[in-house]
From TrEMBL:
SUPFAM superfamilies membership: alpha/beta-Hydrolases (SSF53474)
Keyword Transmembrane: yes
Organism: Streptomyces albidochromogenes
Protein name (record): Integral membrane protein
InterPro entries assigned: AB_hydrolase_fold
Region (Disordered), start-end ranges: 52-75, 708-751, 767-791
The entry's keywords: Membrane, Transmembrane, Transmembrane helix
UniProt feature, compositional bias: Polar residues: 782-791
Residues that span the membrane, as ranges: 95-113, 125-145, 188-205, 253-273, 285-306, 326-344, 364-383, 395-417, 446-467, 512-536, 556-576
Length: 791
């Protein structure tokens, strides 16, 4: 809706309001309240827009940056809209990023480290553990692709005439036809192309997004340090924070090499085991040599992952060409040699049962569990050094999220294996008497069997939270009616407002929900691992000799879990396909990425790219360029996730520009979500430092908002940062000013509250008067001009 801009004194000079939208995105027309908008700077992905009537507003300025007399724009801030939604939900292809969800969650773990002072080695250990955990997820994904292509399709189904007889696409591999490709080694060599292609696809997507996102250079730091600038800068204010090009390139090379080595290990392991049993000296020696080379390659990959973390204190423009080129290239050569080795003629080799090496999933699960536990120990050590009551889960948010990433990876890989096995077996059940193939590894079936009891725990937690919310709603009724003393009480109206507030308060229960989920998942995952390794049988068969109740429960859990994991994966893929065709569903997925991909790729290079590495430089360049050119005053106005981008951009500004910028946030998750879950970067000390560095800052919030809240900053500035909680709804009942029932706005339409315009005007009044613009021909900020080509 259009907003009325209050007038200002004539000597105020040019003023700009830079609007930044939140999650889900919007249009410049909606942001500016005008159907006629013009793109000032940017491209189709992210751009700054103005109303058509404001395009020339600050093009011609008089001495000292003053707007000439008689200009109709004099005395009011010119609104601009920065639209960045296409960075995360611009086209249907990005909906496929949903399949990279475990990688995205693992990447968040790096940024969830607790606040600490000193303990440099402990902080580095935390980063190394997270990067190793991310590497294990890549190995898990490629191992699942190997399980489907090599084990289920090429080894089991193609080796069984009953399975391959009705599948024409497997005909040339079938043992029944006895062709050149019918030998197990050659079947496996052909099937290895599938996981190798998956690895190549991940490399391609990561490289493509790396060129578009990580290669956006931030605003260069000034040559002369400012004497008033604090020597210890928050992490988000460091020059290299939003430029992770070098690290992502190294990690991409390491993960790509790990993918190729995983395929080669699955292929070489099967062939080498046969050669050792067959006692063929030449092939046996070749197999041992290849296994040794693969082990050496794995050691190099782990060394590259552990060797270097992020470089944030400076703009690191180097690239490690030796690593980024030679490492994946060498792994690909080893894979090619392994394919030739496996395709060597072995007439006596017959495939039966499962492919040897199915315990690899158990080793991966055990490694991931150990990494999560080690990460928890390190996080607790860091938290105890600088305890903060507002930090989520006492610093254990990162390890809990890591456990969630592992669980998501297990569910997705297990779901694919289960569904492909059922499809290949036809009417039978894999591993059962009526089945024609042995099916996926036993551990995947055990992991599926623990899903029903996990859901029971989560349902009990949901019931507890529902009761708690109902009680909280009842307790709020009296306080709500007291906020509207002039209105007649209405039970229905009061209950509705109380219900919205109680539901909004559930956000603060997220640490408990995640903690219970992570702990339960760890316990049940350990039980599944022990059960699979000790019994070597699926749960139904392992419980066959026990009491009838136990045996029936085990069989039911196995069947229900397998069904749930399969249906869940199908729904996952279906949602992605729907998002490809349905813009509304695509926008919903875009909201997920808006929250999850704010952070740079610090641990997993195959995660969806960080849009802030494009958005933050965009905003920083625009603010610094406009203030440097005009000497005017600027209010950056951010809603929801836009407030996080606004804060990160203000941190990156040079001191001379930051003095002319005010920060207005509303519906902001800066403290409620980011401060609690990412304390090292948005904790209390960081937000207080931001309040001290920016000239003035005000934050608007509502009790009905499930996302935004107060920033809880203690500031010496008057009137402080947080406003009083805004009334929502604006009117309790019908009034002369509100003849129709006022809606409960929650997280939206903060501009509809009269307090919004008052606070923005007050911020502009607190900014210093217009300064003489600095026009330096050699400066990249002094060469731009207003209008369409500025920025």
């Amino acid at each position: 809706m259009p907003r009325v801009t209050p007038p200002r004194d004539d000597d105020g000079g040019p003023a700009l309001e830079l609007l930044v939208h939140g999650v889900g995105g919007t249009t410049p027309q909606d942001m500016l309240g005008d159907p006629r908008t013009v793109r000032i700077t940017g491209d189709e992905t992210a751009a700054v827009y103005r109303r058509a009537e404001d395009v020339e507003a600050d093009r011609a300025t008089g001495p000292g940056g003053q707007v000439p007399d008689g200009d109709e724009t004099r005395g009011r801030p010119v609104p601009e809209a920065y639209v960045w939604c296409n960075l995360t939900s611009g086209n249907g292809a990005r909906a496929l990023w949903l399949l990279l969800l475990p990688f995205m969650v693992a990447n968040l773990v790096h940024w969830m480290q607790p606040t600490t002072r000193g303990l440099t080695r402990t902080v580095r250990t935390y980063g190394v553990l997270v990067r190793l955990l991310a590497l294990s997820l890549t190995v898990l994904l490629i191992a699942a692709a190997c399980e489907v292509a090599l084990d289920l399709a090429a080894w089991q189904c193609a080796g069984s005439p009953r399975c391959s007889g009705d599948k024409s696409w497997l005909g040339f591999l079938s043992t029944e036809r006895g062709g050149w490709w019918s030998q197990p080694g050659r079947r496996l060599a052909v099937a290895a192309l599938v996981p190798a292609a998956v690895t190549g696809l991940l490399w391609y997507l990561s490289n493509r997004t790396w060129s578009a996102y990580e290669s956006q250079r931030p605003l260069p730091a000034g040559a002369e340090p400012d004497p008033d600038e604090p020597t210890a800068r928050p992490a988000l204010g460091m020059p290299g924070f939003w430029y992770g090009r070098r690290l992502v390139a190294r990690l991409r090379a390491a993960h790509t090499a790990a993918g190729f080595l995983t395929v080669a290990a699955a292929l070489a392991g099967a062939a080498a085991r046969h050669d050792r049993r067959a006692a063929v000296p030449l092939l046996e020696a070749t197999g041992r040599l290849l296994e040794g080379a693969l082990l050496a390659g794995a050691v190099v990959v782990v060394w590259v992952v552990c060797r270097r973390g992020r470089s944030e204190s400076r703009l690191d423009v180097k690239l490690d060409r030796a690593v980024t080129t030679l490492l994946p290239g060498s792994a690909l050569v080893l894979l090619a040699l392994t394919v030739l080795y496996a395709a060597w003629s072995r007439p006596g080799w017959v495939s039966a049962g499962r492919l040897p090496g199915d315990r690899a999933f158990g080793v991966i699960a055990l490694a991931e569990g150990g990494l999560v536990v080690a990460l928890a120990v390190v996080a607790l050590t860091m938290y105890r050094r600088v305890p903060d009551a507002r930090t989520a889960m006492r610093g254990l948010g990162g390890p809990a999220t890591a456990m969630l990433a592992c669980a998501l990876g297990g569910v997705m890989t297990g779901g694919v294996a289960q569904r492909v096995a059922d499809w290949l077996d036809g009417a039978g059940t894999p591993g059962e008497p009526g089945g024609v193939i042995a099916g996926p590894p036993v551990l995947l079936t055990w992991q599926a069997a623990v899903i029903p009891p996990l859901l029971v725990v989560l349902l009990a937690l949901g019931a507890f939270l529902a009761v708690h919310t109902w009680r909280a709603r009842r307790a709020m009724a009296g306080g709500i009616e007291a906020e509207y003393p002039d209105a007649d009480p209405d039970v229905v109206r009061t209950r509705r407002i109380a219900r919205v507030r109680a539901m909004a308060a559930l956000t603060d229960r997220a640490p408990a929900i995640l903690g219970v989920t992570a702990a339960t998942t760890l316990v049940f995952g350990a039980a599944a691992l022990v059960g699979a390794w000790v019994t070597g049988k699926v749960p139904g068969r392992a419980a066959a000799g026990t009491a009838d109740f136990v045996a029936s429960a085990a069989q039911a859990a196995q069947a229900l879990g397998s069904w749930l994991i399969g249906v869940g994966f199908i729904l996952f893929v279906t949602w992605g396909r729907r998002a490809y065709r349905d813009p509304a569903a695509r926008r919903t997925i875009g909201i997920l990425w808006d929250v999850g991909t704010f952070w740079p790729r610090a641990s997993h290079p195959f995660a969806p790219p960080c849009y802030a590495e494009r958005a933050v430089p965009d905003l920083t360049w625009r603010m610094a360029g406009w203030t440097d050119r005009t000497g005017g005053r600027l209010v950056i106005s951010g809603h929801s996730q836009g407030s996080v981008l606004a804060a990160a951009s203000v941190w990156q500004l040079p001191p001379r520009a930051r003095r002319r910028v005010a920060l207005l946030t509303y519906g902001s998750p800066l403290e409620r979500l980011y401060g609690r879950w990412f304390p090292a970067f948005f904790g209390t000390a960081c937000l207080e430092a931001l309040s001290d560095e920016v000239h003035c800052w005000r934050n608007l919030w509502r009790r009905t908002d499930p996302i935004g809240g107060p920033v809880r900053v203690k500031s010496d500035q008057a009137p402080g940062v947080d406003t009083e909680a805004l009334k929502d709804p604006l009117a309790y009942g019908r009034t002369r000013e509100q003849p129709l029932p006022a809606p409960v706005l929650g997280h939206s339409d903060y501009q509809a509250d009269p307090a919004f315009d008052r606070e923005r005007t007050a911020l502009l009044d607190r900014l210093p008067p217009c300064a003489v613009p600095r026009q330096r021909p050699d400066s990249p900020l002094g060469q731009g001009s207003s209008g369409r080509s500025s920025g």
